[in-house]
Write a structure and sequence with these properties.
Chain B: It is found in: Membrane. The complex is a heterodimer of chains A (about 650) and B (about 425). Chain A is built from 21 helices and 24 strands. Chain A is an alpha+beta fold and about 650 residues long. Classes of the chains: A alpha+beta (about 650), B mainly alpha (about 425).
């Protein structure tokens, strides 16, 4: 027995060690992945980010170099602090604080000492840099906006968050990524692919040479330039018209689905989100929870569409054959149903056919049409589902599957939607508000613009999109394939005739533009907010949709101006001007232009927060801007007009 | 006749081949662990791997010398060798050079020699000589004391030089003495002491005492009803005493760094901040070496491909932590092979020892196996985090001339003794 003790112990020890090895190396091994190996430093080589051009080749976004002063605290030798501080424009205390901060981060690793020097400071400093050992200048690339417009279109880039890194392992700490607008939706194309160098480091974090002579290293792939569908001049003009208002405007080219302008008001200068001040400015914009400048109302704002939706009901009624264009509906100053009445501004006894109904926006006419659609087979449940399907074929009630970074579904109700309110019986009158685009119907400006584009095209639309060209690559097929609605081509003509008459003699007759046949529809939508949990009505939203010219349409648009009262007051003016601008290039209706620049809704927006009682609609007066501001806006307008004449359209700056 | 027939085969070639395998593979890993940059000049003698190559070369000369000396010399002069060796250890107090807190080196010219490495061989010879003496009976208490003194002298000397690791190695002689007839209660007491110490440090004196009481009661009731009750009670009292007293020993006698190592090993430290602190300081080595081994996976990253080895993430990797290089670059396959080769070498030496006809040779061979085993167990166990950190080299693998030569001498004296077995009729 004694002889075997050591034998046994030796064999047991061997087995113990092998099981421990099994545990460490096979059962629970450390990753062999170079990216997770903290003995290998990954150094990235960032490619040039792609430029963004507008549809006319005007450069909107490029890159600019930025210079950071870096420090490696351990390598700093005694220096002339006074001179250094004066070069960097900081005081001695700031120098000490920054140095200590860098030291506590790591004495051996580089830290940013002063971020993003101005070019002038850089020029001076560069000469003297070698005198300050341990400090050096690192070049980085920032976005350079060549324009002050389109913040909501272009978006911006910022450092990735831990969430971004978790979602896509391409991103590493400190990488920049598109956060909004086309920067976000075309991130993969714009950013290119960064190159990488693997460097072996030692336990003091010092580089000791390329890992395996660099056989795994890759070179960067340049980002591609993109051309977007936006017309920068039209966008700039629209943004100017929307000054001092809140709302959203979308202008589309019906024949292609290209977004000509996407205006969100209020907006801001995209340059605010570049460089040293980005964080501060972003915070300022994000805490304005009343005006919400970061909220893209043109694609995220969900509104009841109001009267423009009557066009949809007219189309469905025709398609379902429940009404003919000639059929007369007599309005008794409202529509009576089940002991209730839906008011209308028609005089008592007005007789409207379809064109008249659209032209005068007669509520009774469309209530009648709506009921006929729903009650066609004597079953309102089937009726509303059919109605809903027609409306959805125009891209309403769902995401448009476009290339915009954000969006909203809006809402087109069907029978299921009403299930919990009306579990058993369901009559067409229950949802009568849908007849006039209120009630449960909700759309975003881009959806409504798309609906108008489909009407302009007499039955089909192209998915609205913002990409026009990608360097060396086709745009997605989805954007070049027409989407057909469920309405026959012939049924569009009476509706379009009605829209034409809106301009000729109806609710928008004051907005006519010489030589252009515009088809439009006004909308005025009641809206409410809660003030101290009391439901309070505010001045109606001003809504307008239009396309032009009637034949061979070049532009279709939807304009929402919050609390602008009636449709042709604010939204209609904006629509007419944008149409004229797009088609003619110059403005003849400068009276409309002047009126818009002169009037502000800011006091209107301030009312609910004033804590005082206030009047709405006809009891509210639209106020004018101060003479100084008016002058400033006029100056801006002159600058725009000037630029249009002088600026070479294909200027490229690098 | 016989002698002539076996002339060329009289040395045990299996042991020699295993020895060469380990030393050769050790050198390959020293290259990985100590090279700087991509260029390797194997004969660059300013580098550790270059120096080690010289040490290995000199080892062959040493081997020839060792095998040339008459086998009888080692037995006859064992006492003299022992005395010289002890004197060299004592001389360290006067002329020693302090490296890493231990005064274990003589500096001669640019070289350093660590006499404690050689003292193990000397002690093995002395123990073999003493125990194999016809007048010695290891069952005899007086003789036990004498042999303990032989072992304790070098053990205490190296302890005084602050080389705790080497002191523990002298525990290896327990296996030798036990094999030669040391009463069984030494084994029982030894195991009990270790178990009681660990249990009471981890779970406290009370729990340990209760466990001891239950075990003793169980032994009495189930195994041996006739045993002496008073003796059992005495054993219990001593166990309980140790259970409660170990904390005092732990706090009063151990140095702070030793306490830290034990508390980390037994996971006594619960404060996460303190643990984090430990990971950055003394546990850094252990942490990094485990990571390096772990990153080797099944097949390893390949020779000189280990990123942690190349980046020198594991301090002392070419000496005490050499096995982490094996783990990272050769993976599970390579590391298991190293362990298997060590086990084979140990079993081979044990086997040879058992078939010796001379008691001196047998005891010496047993000592060789025991000493190498303790080194092997403590070193690899430490590198893989199985036992507390104790700094002793991995035989034949770790960088260093003294260690390599000491183990060469240890092993080849035995190979010489073994080759002489045939003549000892």
């Amino acid at each position: 027995m004694r002889q075997f003790l050591l034998y046994i112990v030796i064999v047991l020890a061997g087995l113990l060690f092998i099981s421990r090895l099994f545990y460490l190396q096979i059962y629970n091994p450390n990753s062999n992945n170079l990216f997770e190996d903290n003995a290998i430093r990954k150094v990235y080589d960032y490619p040039k980010r792609g430029f963004v051009f507008d549809r006319n080749g005007q450069l909107l976004v490029s890159n600019q170099p930025s210079y950071d002063v870096m420090v490696i605290p351990r390598e700093v030798k005694p220096l002339d602090t006074l001179e250094f501080c004066s070069l960097l424009k900081i005081d001695k205390q700031a120098f000490k604080d920054k140095f200590e901060k860098a030291y506590s981060y790591s004495p051996r690793l580089p830290s940013v000492f002063i971020p993003q020097l101005s070019k002038a400071d850089y020029a001076v400093l560069q000469e003297k840099m070698r005198k300050f050992e341990g400090f050096y200048i690192q070049k980085r690339s920032l976005r350079h906006y060549q324009t002050t417009i389109g913040a909501n279109v272009l978006g911006s880039i910022s450092e990735v968050t831990p969430g971004d890194i978790a979602k896509d392992p391409y991103y590493k700490r400190g990488d920049l990524k598109g956060k909004e607008g086309v920067e976000a939706s075309y991130e993969d194309i714009l950013r290119g692919v960064k190159g990488i160098k693997f460097i072996q480091k030692d336990r003091f974090n010092r580089n000791i040479g390329p890992y395996k002579d660099g056989i795994y290293d890759t070179i960067p792939e340049q980002g591609k330039d993109i051309t977007i569908t936006i017309d920068a001049d039209l966008q700039a003009y629209g943004e100017l018209l929307m000054e001092n208002k809140r709302g959203g405007v979308i202008a589309l080219e019906p024949s292609s689905g290209e977004i000509l302008a996407m205006i969100a008001a209020p907006t801001f200068d995209p340059n605010l989100l570049v460089g040293r001040e980005r964080t501060k400015n972003y915070y300022k914009l994000s805490i304005d929870t009343i005006a919400k400048p970061l909220f893209n109302r043109s694609i995220q704002g969900v509104y009841e569409p109001g009267s423009p939706f009557k066009l949809m009901n007219a189309l469905i009624a025709l398609q379902e054959g429940v009404i003919t264009p000639q059929e007369i509906v007599t309005c008794s100053g409202g529509y009576r149903y089940g002991g209730r009445i839906m008011g209308c501004h028609c005089a008592y006894g007005t007789r409207n056919n379809m064109v008249g109904g659209i032209m005068h926006s007669c509520n009774a006419y469309f209530a009648t049409a709506y009921r006929k659609i729903l009650d066609k087979n004597g079953n309102a449940s089937d009726g509303i589902n059919k109605w809903s399907a027609h409306a959805k074929s125009f891209g309403l009630g769902n995401f448009l599957n476009n290339d915009l970074h954000v969006g909203q579904k809006g809402r087109i109700p069907d029978r299921d939607y009403y299930k919990h309110v009306y579990p058993n019986t369901f009559y067409s009158t229950y949802t009568i508000s849908n007849a006039i685009g209120q009630g449960e119907v909700a759309t975003t400006p881009i959806q409504l613009a798309n609906m108008v584009a489909a009407i302009a095209n007499r039955g089909y639309y192209y998915t609205p999109h913002i990409i026009k060209k990608i360097e060396g690559q086709d745009i997605p097929e989805n954007f070049t394939t027409p989407k057909h609605t469920t309405i026959d081509k012939a049924n569009f003509e009476p509706v379009i005739e009605g829209m034409l008459q809106v301009y000729k003699q109806g609710t928008a007759s004051a907005l006519q533009v010489k030589d252009i046949e515009i088809c439009g529809k006004t909308g005025t939508v009641e809206n409410f907010i809660k003030i101290d949990s009391v439901r309070t009505q505010l001045t109606d939203h001003s809504i307008f949709v239009a396309f032009a010219p009637k034949d061979n349409p070049k532009i279709a648009l939807a304009v929402f101006v919050e609390n602008g009262y009636w449709g042709s007051r604010f939204a209609g003016r904006v629509a007419s001007l944008l149409i004229e601008k797009h088609i003619k290039g110059t403005i003849t209706r400068t009276d409309l232009e002047d009126w818009l620049l002169k009037h502000t809704l800011e006091p209107e927006y301030a009312k609910p927060y004033s804590g005082e009682a206030f009047g709405i609609n006809r009891n509210a007066v639209v106020e004018e801007v101060s003479p100084e501001e008016y002058k400033a806006l006029k100056k801006q307008l002159a600058k725009l007009n000037n630029k249009n004449i002088n600026a070479p359209k294909h200027a490229q700056t690098f | 006749m016989l002698r002539n027939t076996h002339r060329h085969f009289k040395f045990d070639w299996i042991t020699i081949i295993l020895f060469l395998l380990l030393a050769g593979f050790g050198w390959i890993n020293i290259i990985s662990a100590s090279h700087v940059g991509e260029e390797i000049n194997y004969f660059d003698f300013s580098q550790s791997y270059g120096k080690q190559l010289i040490f290995i070369f000199l080892t062959f000369i040493l081997i020839i010398l060792l095998l040339a000396i008459d086998a009888k010399f080692y037995e006859r002069f064992s006492s003299v060798i022992y005395i010289i060796s002890m004197l060299s250890l004592m001389g360290l107090f006067l002329f020693g050079k302090n490296v890493n807190g231990a005064t274990s080196w003589y500096g001669i010219g640019g070289m350093t020699i660590q006499p404690s490495e050689f003292a193990k061989t000397a002690t093995a010879l002395a123990v073999a000589k003493f125990v194999s003496d016809l007048n010695t009976n290891i069952k005899n208490f007086k003789d036990q004391i004498q042999v303990f003194i032989i072992i304790l002298i070098p053990a205490v000397l190296v302890l005084l030089q602050n080389d705790t690791g080497s002191t523990i190695v002298y525990g290896a002689f327990f296996f030798v003495l036990y094999r030669e007839g040391l009463p069984k209660y030494y084994l029982n007491i030894g195991i009990s002491l270790i178990v009681i110490s660990i249990l009471s440090l981890k779970f406290g004196g009370l729990v340990t005492s209760i466990v001891a009481a239950l075990l003793i009661l169980g032994y009495y009731l189930l195994i041996k009803r006739k045993s002496n009750v008073f003796l059992l009670i005495l054993i219990f009292l001593i166990s309980a005493g140790i259970s409660f007293g170990i904390k005092f020993f732990y706090n009063a006698l151990l140095q702070p760094h030793q306490k830290d190592r034990i508390s980390l090993w037994l996971r006594l430290e619960k404060d996460p901040d303190k643990l984090e602190q430990m990971k950055k300081t003394f546990a850094y080595n252990l942490n990094e070496s485990e990571k390096a081994i772990s990153s080797g996976g099944f097949t390893g990253r390949g020779f000189m491909e280990g990123t942690r080895t190349t980046g020198k993430f594991v301090p002392e990797q070419h000496t005490d932590y050499i096995f982490s290089t094996v783990g990272e670059e050769w993976g599970f396959l390579g590391s298991s092979m190293v362990i298997i080769v060590f086990v084979l070498l140990l079993l081979r030496i044990l086997h040879l020892a058992e078939i010796q006809k001379s008691q001196f040779s047998r005891i010496y061979g047993y000592s060789v196996a025991s000493i190498i085993f303790v080194h092997f167990f403590i070193n690899i166990g430490m590198v893989m985090g199985l036992i507390p950190t104790i700094g002793i080299p991995l035989p034949l693998f770790s960088y260093g001339g003294s260690g390599l030569w000491a183990f060469t001498i240890l092993i080849f004296i035995f190979i010489k003794l073994d080759s002489n077995r045939i003549n000892e009729w």
